[in-house]
Amino acid sequence: MIGSIALLLLLFGIVIYVTIHHALMREFDASLAESVHIMAACVEVDGDEIEIEFDPARVPELRNKELPSHYEFWCEDGAVLLRSESLGQTNLPRFHGEKDAPGVRSVRLHGGAAGRALGVSFTPAADNEYFIEQENGDSAITSSSEDLPAIILVVARSTRQLDAQMAFFRWLLAGSGGVTMIVALVVSLLIVRRGLRPL
Fold first, then answer.
1. Is the pLDDT of residue 129 over 70?
2. Which residues, including other chains, have CB under 8 Å from residue 117's CB and lie 6 or more apart?
3. Fewest Cβ atoms closer than 10 Å to its Cβ: which of 29, 48, 82, 184?
């Protein structure tokens, strides 16, 4: 009986833990995606230049000094366009999905902290006409989005708070399961002792 109760509690705890962990991770990734969409909207091509103009104040996560978000923009050839000051001279891992289906992965951030990163490849908006340098040295003018350069953006954030929450929840589940087992054991012993009393 005690073994069956222990097994049921273990399975119940695992299901609850996994469900809550996935829910929190989806919420975390959704927050990263929101930051990515805000930042991607601030990239445009003006003439022959790629301009990135965004106010960090528009992205609340960038103002968190304790757990700042890190970001980095690249051209599709790997050239760095812009990176957050919090990265120093280090780089985020360069990867991406599409704008409507971003790539997401767990990463190690600068300093070794555990983090979560989301990457997209997108075509910036054209402010006016875009000039492409031809092999013969001439310049061609185009306004087609197919001819605009692809930009890769990766935003990463520490999962320290999320990991701390899940660690606390693990202890809470273990503690509540342990207390339940003790109560079940005491009740079982009382029932057995009462059953063994002489009539």
1. no
2. 32, 92, 93, 95, 104, 105, 106, 107, 154, 155, 156, 157
3. 48
* Domains: count for the chain: 1
Split at pLDDT 50, 70, 90, the class of 40 is confident
Evaluate whether residue 54 is within a structural domain: yes
Per-residue model confidence (pLDDT) at position 27: 92
The pTM score is 0.72
Residue 51 lies in a domain: yes
Residue 15 lies in a domain: yes
**Higher pLDDT, residue 14 or 180:** 14
Taking 80 as the threshold, does the pLDDT of residue 138 lie above it? no
Residue 141: predicted pLDDT? 46
Residue 31 falls inside a structural domain? yes
Residues 143, 40, 125: CA angle, nearest 5 degrees: 10
